[in-house]
Amino acid sequence: MTNFIQQIVSGLASGGIYGLLALALVLIHRSTGVINFAQGEMATLSAFVCWTLISHGWAFWPAFGATLVLSFAGGLALETTIIRPIQGGPLLGIVILTIGLLIAFNGLDTWIWGGAAKQFHGPFSTAPIRVGGVAFSKQDLGVIAVAFVVLALVGVLFTRTRLGLGLRAAAVNPDEARLVGVRVPSMLALGWGLAAVLGAIAGVMAAPSLFLEPNMMQTVLLYAFAAAVLGGMDSPLGAVVGGLLLGVLLNLVGTYVHWIGGELRLATALAVILAVLLVRPSGLFGRAAARRV
Amino acid sequence: MRPKQVAFGLGVLVLVVLPFVLSDFRTVQLATVGAYFIAILGLDVLTGHSGQISLGHGAFMAVGGYTTAILMANHGVRDLVTIPIAAAVAGGIGLVAGVPALRLSGLYLALATFGIAVVLPTILKKFDHFTGGSTGITLFGKPTQTGHGVGVWGLTNNQWLYVLTWTIGCALFLFAWWLLDSRFGRSLRAVRDSELAAAASGVNRAKYKVLAFGVSAAFAGVAGALFAINVAYTSPDTFPITLSLYLLVGAVVGFFGSIWGAALGALLIQFLPDIVGLIPHVDPKQGGPTTFFFGLVLVVLMLALPLVLRVASRVANRGYLGAR
To answer: In this structure, which topology does domain A2-279 adopt according to CATH?
Structure first.
């Protein structure tokens, strides 16, 4: 029983990271209909920036704040310079472009920071705390808390502010949004900026437990895909809930189904993706899309 | 003689002359290029002409490579015999994979195939009694290993590998050329450009999309088999996710999925590290710069795509990546 609770707690902690990255994916998918394959590598790049600031003597929180600002600017710049010119073209073309970004960012990280794994000291202690035999760390609790705070902020932004209304309008119906005065291109750029910020949070939260190296987010990206698909690609709440569910599911399956163990963890996530896409493409929280032919 | 026939003839001529003027080392490198060439041809059929993206073609190469390695190492089958078997196994899996792929739109197909390429190495490690796990399978010194052509016309082992790979490569190129020029190819492009219009014209959309997956995977299977024979070794790390992504880069570089550019894409995959090494102050041994430039090439080309499409629309019967 203790082990069972233990697996749930640590599953929630890793699930929080999947959920954060999935949230970034969902933001871009909602607004532009594209899956950003470079999201994981953008997160790694942000984590490297944060690490560099910290190793230059900055305290964590200022470094984190600066990283978020830089990531936001980077996301904006990426959308305006690279994505916008082919926005509206074939969808697959944009997807292939983000794969180019994935490869390029991965190479850039290795080029600048080298391939060796780096220790990343986050804001939360990774020392274990024991409560009734269940071990967890402040890092675990911190990640879960951050995931929910971010979800709440995104929720407030989208449903309670004028800016959020514009973002949603640009996503749902760009033509009519333009007619009522929403600056659609700016909204799309803002969406990329916000997604970059969410990715940065995911990257910085993941780095203390995963160790910082260029391929850090490669497997996390697949888990985030699974989380986003599970929650329904268009639902922010679904992304975070999907992430937490997935984290717990993977831990429980890995522990109690010995044949799967730790080795087929990634394969289980892929199975989740395929099962959801083939059986219920709208996921748990998404709306079923009607397609005009 | 039509221009394309002349181009093909010239290409074959260059291929025949090259081993006489190049070092043994370059020759074996070009044999590897031949394997990439075949895999990219397969990707051209699938993505360029039927509009279905695959980010996991390295996985089909792995199926071919492991089929060859297991047959040679554990069952004493001769290398040449394993190549058609590898094609059949990979092609069969491709056909099976093509059926669920029908239900996925372009975006989700990209996601699923990406997932397969990421997951495959962990599966190869899991079933280690079959695949040799992380250690892989060594083919060095197997009596069934290639080299049966060595000595014929004074060929060295590396030259033999070159001849083997490119003979198959040219044959498969002709096959792809014929296939894409036939009713099959026209149907693929019709489905790619408008499923609705194709269906209204009586094209069985499901049949052609699944068949394209099968053919494409069979090509990749042959490529994987030749790859394994060339390096005489397979391991999970022989077929990483980067291989799948680089194949996509190669297909895009090759005139956006036209089979006529496949050689260009294959050369890029093999020789980009050398080209990057020419840049001052860049150490090509540190993989970062090469990877970065692979990504950069893809980004720049995709940004140029709208322009290219405008030109391409005037040239009939060519592939392009990025159909909606």
So the answer is: ABC transporter involved in vitamin B12 uptake, BtuC (1.10.3470)
Give the range among A94-108, B49-63, B126-140, B261-275 with minimum mean pLDDT: B126-140
Helix residue spans in A79-233 (DSSP H): 91-113, 138-160, 162-172, 174-179, 184-210, 216-231
Mutate to test the interface with B, among A34, A92, A260 (most CBs of B within 10 A): A92
CB B321 within 8 A of CB A93: yes
Q: Let me know: does B62 contact B120? Beta carbons within 8 Å.
A: yes
Nearest by CB: B55 against A33, A99, A101? A99
Task: Give me the residues paired with residue B138 across strands.
Answer: B233
Other C-beta atoms closer than 10 Å to the C-beta of B281 total: 5
Instruction: Please give the distance of CA A130 from its chain centroid, rounded to a whole number.
Output: 29
Which of B125, B196, B298 is nearest residue A293 as measured by Cβ atoms?
Answer: B196
Residues belonging to chain A: 293
Contacts of B91 (CB under 8 A, 6+ apart): B214, B215, B217, B218, B221
Quick: pLDDT tens for A237-262: 889 999 999 999 998 888 888 888 77
A-proximal residues of B, 254-313, CB under 8 Å: 286-299, 301-303, 305-306
In A, minimum Cα distance to B106 occurs at A92
Report chain B residues whose CB lies below 8 A from the CB of A104.
291-292, 294-296, 298-299
Among partner residues A33, A270, A278, which is closest to B115 by beta-carbon distance?
A270
Q: Is 80 exceeded by the pLDDT of residue B307?
A: no
B23: three-class secondary structure by DSSP: coil
- For residues A275 and A266, give the distance between their C-alpha atoms in angstroms, rounded to a whole number: 14
Residues of B in contact with A266 (CB under 8 A): 118-119, 122
Q: What angle do CA A273, B98, B269 make, to 5 degrees?
A: 85
Q: Does residue B141 come out as left (phi exceeding 0), alpha (psi in the -120 to 50 range) or beta?
A: left
The tokens for B322 are 């990025």
Q: Provide the pLDDT confidence category of residue A69 given band limits of 50, 70 and 90.
A: very high
Among B residues 93-122, those touching chain A with beta carbons less than 8 Å apart: 100, 103-104, 106-108, 110-112, 114-116, 118-119, 122
Read off the tokens for B55.
């980010």
* Model confidence at A119: pLDDT above 70: yes
Contact of B180 with chain A, judged by CB distance below 8 Å, is answered with no
Host H or E run for residue B316: none
Instruction: Check CB contact of A269 with chain B, cutoff 8 Å.
Output: yes
The shortest C-alpha distance from A29 to chain B (Å) reads: 10
How many CA within 13 A on the CB side of residue B6? 3
Residues of A in contact with B112 (CB under 8 A): 270, 273-274, 277
Q: Which amino acid is at A135?
A: A
Compute the distance between CA of residue A195 and CA of residue A78 in angstroms, rounded to an integer. Answer: 11
Q: What is the interface pTM, i.e. ipTM, of the complex?
A: 0.89
Which candidate, B225, B241, B238, B298, places its Cα nearest to that of B268?
A: B298
